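Support request from a user on the community tier.

User writes: "When I paste my structure tokens into the form, the page sometimes reloads and wipes my input. The last time it worked, I copied everything first. Here is what I submitted, just in case something in the input itself triggers the reload:"
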């Protein structure tokens, strides 16, 4: 069996509330296998460990379900800070560990489920599975069929879209009885939906919640399901998969027909330049055959530039006179340069171009 916290186990056994059991543990009034436990986070295995409170053994309460026809003016909780009447006042101390599944408004009546089976209660309340709730509502005015059709398609509320099936049961002078089938348990969802349609709800009674039905249960009366009934209902709840995996609830996918080759769609006919046809693609592919030589990338370009720079660096350098002579030869086809013919042959000791004499100093070494 799965391990559970000690205070949670004691609360499920009906010894007291979880907060009160935490106080018992800190005071040293709880024993596990003969040893006093004062640690709040202690976990036990109810099928193996022996638990005692005030030297008295505590055994787990058997799982079960209670059905209550909640009267008007009762809060759907086990305790109320405002001191109002709660559903816990309709059960005896033997069922103190039972808690309500879902809620009904303070001014609503009808079926309430109480159980100590947490796994089954969690699945019943989880919106993913969508257990159906059936309500009988008395609303103001005459409700037209168009409003019910609108409700079936969906009505947008502040917390999202709501869809429900509704049928008219009877009509009075100024009121209408409507049966509403909905698979959501939002706060006051039925009342808010009809207020959006323009028909205020005067009375609201829940008759069905999943596999549970109110039957002939009178207002304020409690019915305890037998062990056989509890096992049958639990099997239905735990094996229920809901509409999330139902193939009938899924809309079939419509396959789009492929148009024949060469026929343009309306979009292509209006925008021929944005999206060419398949024939133009074929002609373009035939005109531009794909080259077999691989394209050069940036790394190849960098490698080529580095090799050219290295080749230029390895070439022999020319002097300034050789370079000027080479330019004159290229310009005039050979001969001396124009500067040499104009200035005459340069002699040793002459004046340089900058005006300084390059003659060697007297009494010294020539440069």
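"...and here is what came back when it finally went through:"
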């Amino acid at each position: 069996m799965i391990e559970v916290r000690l205070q949670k186990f004691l609360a499920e056994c009906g010894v007291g509330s979880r907060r009160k059991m935490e106080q018992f543990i800190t005071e040293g009034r709880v024993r596990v296998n003969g040893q006093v436990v004062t640690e709040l986070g202690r976990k036990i295995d109810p099928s193996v460990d022996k638990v005692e409170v005030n030297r008295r053994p505590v055994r787990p309460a058997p799982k079960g379900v209670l059905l209550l026809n909640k009267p008007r003016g009762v809060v759907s909780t086990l305790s109320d800070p405002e001191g109002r009447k709660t559903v816990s006042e309709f059960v005896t101390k033997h069922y103190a560990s039972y808690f309500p599944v879902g809620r009904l408004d303070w001014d609503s009546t009808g079926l309430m489920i109480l159980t100590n089976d947490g796994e089954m209660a969690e699945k019943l309340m989880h919106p993913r599975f969508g257990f159906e709730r059936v309500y009988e509502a008395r609303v103001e005015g005459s409700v037209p069929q168009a409003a019910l059709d609108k409700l079936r398609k969906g009505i947008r509320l502040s917390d999202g879209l709501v869809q429900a099936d509704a049928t008219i049961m009877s009509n009075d002078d100024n009121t209408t009885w409507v049966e509403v089938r909905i698979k959501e348990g939002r706060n006051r969802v039925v009342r808010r939906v009809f207020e959006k349609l323009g028909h205020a709800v005067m009375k609201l009674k829940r008759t069905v919640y999943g596999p549970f039905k109110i039957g002939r249960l009178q207002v304020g009366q409690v019915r305890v399901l037998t062990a056989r009934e509890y096992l049958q209902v639990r099997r239905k709840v735990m094996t229920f998969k809901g509409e999330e995996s139902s193939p009938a609830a899924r809309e079939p996918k419509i396959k789009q027909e492929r148009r024949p080759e060469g026929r343009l769609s309306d979009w292509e006919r209006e925008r021929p330049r944005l999206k060419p046809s398949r024939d133009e693609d074929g002609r373009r592919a035939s005109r531009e055959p794909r080259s077999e030589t691989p394209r050069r990338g940036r790394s190849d370009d960098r490698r080529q530039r580095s090799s050219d720079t290295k080749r230029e660096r390895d070439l022999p350098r020319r002097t300034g006179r050789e370079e000027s002579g080479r330019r004159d030869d290229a310009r005039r086809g050979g001969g001396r340069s124009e500067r040499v013919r104009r200035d005459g042959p340069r002699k040793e000791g002459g004046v340089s171009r900058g005006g300084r004499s390059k003659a060697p100093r007297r009494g010294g070494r020539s440069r």
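Agent notes: The reload is a front-end session timeout and is unrelated to the input. The CA atoms of residues 62 and 116 lie 8 Å apart. The two ends are 111 Å apart (CA to CA). Escalated to web team.
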